[in-house]
Amino acid sequence: MRNFSFSFISLVIISLFFLTLFQPVAVNAAELDINSTQLSPEINLGMVIVTIIVIIAVILFLWEPVRPDIVALGVPVVLVSLNRWTKVSVAEALSGFSNEATIAVLAMFILSEGIRRSGLMQIIGDKIMQLTAGKEKRQLGVITGLSGLTSGMINNTPVVAAFIPMVTELAEKTKTSPSKLLIPLSYASMMGGTMTLLGTSTNLLASGFSARLLDHPFSMFEFTKLGAIIFVIGIIYLLTAGRYLTPERIEPNEDLVEEYEVGDFLTEVIIEIGSPLIGHSVGRSLDEINLDMDLVKIIRNGKEFIKPLDSKSFQAGDHLIVRTDRRTLMELIETEGLKHLSETKVTERELEEPKRGQKLIEVIISYGSYLEGQTLNEVNFIERYNTSILAVRRGRELTHQQMNNIALKPGDVLLLLTNETTLDRLRNNPNFIITREIEKSVYRRSKIPIALASIIGVVALGGLNILPTAISALGGVLAMILTGCIEPKEIYDAVNWEVIFLLAGLIPLGIAIEQTGTANYIANQLLAVAGFLPAIVMLGLFYLLTSLLTNIISNNASVVLMIPVAIETAQILNANPFSFVIAVTFAASAAFMTPIGYQTNLMVYGPGGYKFRDFIKVGAPLQLLLTIITPLCIALLWGL
């Protein structure tokens, strides 16, 4: 309900922002010191239609009745269908798929996967453990520093995906709360991603808009100085005030059963002589019982069996460990001839059987996973992976009942009891992130030098303008495939297709906002209200508006909506439009106040056990600090 209320308030604010801009406001050219030919055009039907499309898209992004990438794919269809007013041609509507930003982002996902499969991140994790020696502040400094610097070289989303298992294992071994480390990890990756063109898809998308509207694409290190300043300031904040504001939501605990409060829902029963279950198969019997319960394990004559259990038959004297609530348990005892072992407390040690490969694990739904928006029943998860689900954690909220009907989101954590075969499948599946399991994965460590050389080559070729960034990135992908850093069949799983389709679908919307005059009109309306403010304050205003917007919708959507308006505003003010582009770009990577504004925040939300307000508590001071510092630095580095 709290998230719904936040989304509703956010929607009202966004809708009022766009709608009030279309209220007639008298503009005094003398006061603004601008040429009368630059005054706002008359409102036309095209502007109204494009604004309605934007508002509908924002509504759908907030409530997600369908996936955001599907919404984005619908945008070009609508724009072309209404091209009489939107002025978007078929070629322009499809330009997002051939856009250099889209291609470069696709290549960066593959390059990042090549780095991950080399095992380099795990070597870094081992070094972190050696360097930090169990000191929380030292852990925080090394984790934020390394994750941020790495995010400057490859896309920050896979960096966080690789660091989460490392951080949770480090926290477990050193008795540190993972909550103290995971929000800083996400924030550091965001700020680190602003140091080079390749750090985030937002940079590449903004570069495309800057190239089209200003004929000034970003170079590889265009804003590295500014990014480094922001990164250093951010790290200092996270190590000082931010460290004390970050809550300890998950207490250091070796027993996952206790951590997930599963004990009250796990119990042991015995099948008594005369039970109607005797002789019947497990699968058929559970279907007929049709209650909210799960058979986790059968113990028979000292031997233990976990899923798959459907083909086995119940026998008298079988000990069953079941997940259910007390009311359902009493119903089972009364109708199925079971005896409750009330004195038995089920622990992690009792559930696991290392010799048989039975293990409790935490699995995070990764950003872009095919499970996003679907229930476990819809994807047939239990049967597909032969596993028992004991709990689901979303932020601070733990769920132990009706779990099969929960629509999953990125960052959700599943507590599973599984076997080694399933564990291997999950380890090699990019839809999941397995915590506390980094030492078990098989990596191609002999390929580390080649993988590093490929990344360095991409950065060098792009940075020296020898090749366009997209081409150098594709060259890096080809090098990794030919040298065996990544297998051809792995590249398709490595790409987050949601981001690709989101980019491809939203780029034409930016074109429509600019070509219909909507950006020009909104810029004039903003100036009519705030045109008396100095250019530096207007720059800060655009940074603030974009950062607030990116906290509630995607960072890429924020860039699409704000860059055309920012450029128009700067041109009317006779200010440097490129400075305004940089402000919007950096603000779009500053979603510190909500877990929904940026994919890395979502990824740490569940593993950290955070509450929604934790991001406001830790992120708001940092957001305010950067809202002041970033525009001032932009003015110094690029001028107004």
Structure report:
The chain is of the alpha+beta class and 640 residues long. Among the domains are: 103-254 and 445-496, no CATH class; 263-345, Alpha-Beta Plaits, CATH 3.30.70; 357-440, Alpha-Beta Plaits (2-Layer Sandwich), CATH 3.30.70.1450. It has 31 helices and 10 strands. Helix 9 (120-132) runs antiparallel to helix 10 (136-151), helix 13 packs antiparallel against helix 29 and helix 29 runs antiparallel to helix 31 (612-638). The protein is elongated, with a radius of gyration of 27 Å. The chain crosses the membrane at residues 45-63, 181-206, 226-245, 450-482, 494-513, 525-546, 580-598, 618-638. Residues 254-338, 348-432 form the RCK C-terminal domain.
What is the end-to-end distance?
Answer: 44 Å
Secondary structure category: alpha+beta
Counting DSSP E segments of at least 2 residues, the number of strands comes to 10
The residue fraction in helices comes out at: 55-70%
Biggest β-sheet: strands ordered side by side in the sheet: 3-2-4-1-5
Tell me the strand percentage band: 5-15%
Radius of gyration: 27 Å
What's the pLDDT, averaged over the residues?
A: 81
Largest sheet: 5 strands, antiparallel
Subcellular location: Membrane
Keywords: Membrane, Repeat, Transmembrane, Transmembrane helix, Transport
GO molecular function: monoatomic cation transmembrane transporter activity
Transmembrane segments: 45-63, 181-206, 226-245, 450-482, 494-513, 525-546, 580-598, 618-638
